[in-house]
Amino acid sequence: MRQSCDRYSFPFETGHAVADNHTSDDHASYTITRRTHVVDQLMQMERLAVLIHVKPSFTESGGFMTTITKVLPAKNLFTIEISTNEELNNSLINCEELVFSTSVEGIPARFKTSKLSPATLGGKPVFAVVIPKSLYWRQRRQAYRSAIPPVVRMTCTIALTDSKTHTFQVLDISLTGFSLLHEYHKDASKTLEIGQVFQGCRFSWPSSLNTPFTAKLCRTEVADSNGVFRRFKLGFHFADTTLAFEKDIQDLQHELAQIKKRQSGLAHDSQLPGTLRA
To answer: Which domains are delineated in the chain?
Structure first.
């Protein structure tokens, strides 16, 4: 019968965990729960070989520094290097819950898992760990824009100065703003002024972003013109956002990256010799 881990006086190796100075609301807003996203972040940790501090959840001290050696989504597991301290390894094996803390390219990350299981990978001893159901990933505000691919039909409804609601194609989006394609008569530019604030804006997709928000027009530029009609690219800043709204945009950007990745894979496969075509 295994002893409870709280009976151990934990030895530890040199290393420091990420400071835990967030509020409960902050934690909820930056917690990833979609499994594919969690797996992607673990794979990023593996690829970058980031140092991860592992410790029992009931103590603020102890534990050791390690790296992820392999992520195995099909088995719902990932593996980590074991400690050189045998006493520590035995202590960690008996823990019911462990906390993993790290920083990935400046982004604080943290998650909890159940017991570690001794295993081997490529003939070397490792710990096998169950992939967590959620992962705290505090990605700070970034201004990089994600283009909306043609296969995705994403629109935004905005009430212009004529008090009518108009629907526009969304071209790209970031945590700070987005741009729209505005197909209108050549005099349309007279009805739009930089600095205008529009309330009650809505995105058509995804459903998590289908709540009203406020946007401020920051730029307009002519995309093309035939002398009668002009197509404008309108740039907007989000006038006010919540942490939950920003998290939903991050999730959307991640989903768009996955769509782009799948499209690139399909394009690559179609160019391979011997690829079957309909």
So the answer is: 5-137 (2.30.110.10), 146-262 (2.40.10.220)
